[in-house]
Prior knowledge:
α6 (115-130) packs across α7 and α9 (191-205) packs antiparallel against α10 (211-223). The chain is globular and about 55 Å long. The chain starts with a helix and ends with a strand. The chain has helices at residues 2-10, 26-38, 66-76, 86-89, 107-111, 115-130, 142-154, 184-189, 191-205, 211-223; strands spanning 15-20, 41-46, 80-82, 134-138, 160-164, 228-236, 251-259, 262-270. It folds into two domains: 2-164, Rossmann fold, CATH 3.40.50; 177-270, Pantoate--beta-alanine Ligase, Chain: A,domain 2 (2-Layer Sandwich). The strands form two sheets. The protein has a five-stranded parallel β-sheet, sandwiched between helices. The chain has a three-stranded antiparallel β-sheet with strand order 6-7-8. By secondary structure, it is an alpha/beta fold. α3 links the parallel β2 (41-46) and β3 (80-82). The model has no long low-confidence stretch (mean pLDDT 97). The protein binds pantoate.
Amino acid sequence: MTSWSDCHRRDGQSISFVPTMGFLHEGHLSLMKESKRLGNKMVISIFVNPTQFGVGEDFDSYPSDLDRDFKLAEDIGVDVAFTPNKADFYPQGFDTFIDQEKLPNHLCGLSRSGHFQGVMTIVAKLFNVVNPDIAVFGEKDFQQLAIIRRMVKDLNFNIRIIGHPIVREADGLAMSSRNSKLTPDQRITGLCLITSLKKAQSSLKNNETNAAALMHNAVEFICSHPETEIDYIRICDPDTLDDVAEIDRPVLMAMAVKVGTTRLIDNMILNPDE
Ligand code: PAF
């Protein structure tokens, strides 16, 4: 992989990169299209990274269909689909991890201990091996994107990080490989995430600027749906992820909700001036 990148870089080509865990959907394809627009050569990685899954999470049941992924990647014009194997990437004796002090101690990081350490470590390893000029990440994992931006700055990776807006199904459900695990009824219930975000947006428009009130309404609305279990709903500063009490500037409203056994996340920037 690295020789391929070195060779194209020597020829003056720029390399853009989309890391994925596979089971590609329209959201990934849209990141890839953006990536293709930005670089001369495009690489994706497909690797279900064990170090970002906690005990009892869905590592073993994470959906996978490599043949389908390769076909989709080829159709989009991906130059390389890099699929490292676990033994090569985490050989016996592997003992080095990347961590951050502040950003992981919010939102998903609070209930997924060690998750972002695993994400940062794998992304840094992929960056070192793929050696891209540009890397594209989705804004659905808003916290992940913020953490990667911080890591790239702090560790002097010479890579431009691009955030790409959330891609949604026609009815508004944020696209995710995990959506495939929802039953038809749960799929309908899953819409309560985006609906509660839209409700918060419209309450803000009607001058409800108190974050606690907006979060309370979202909790009530989501809990009124069957099979839901809220992990978190927060309104926070989009840069620091610190909680915001009164909304007087654009803020991030983010949530994670289990529908049945499937954990869904979604977010929206709420802007009092819109
Ligand atoms: O967002 C993901 O799919 C993963 O966290 C990533 C960035 C590919 C690292 O495993």
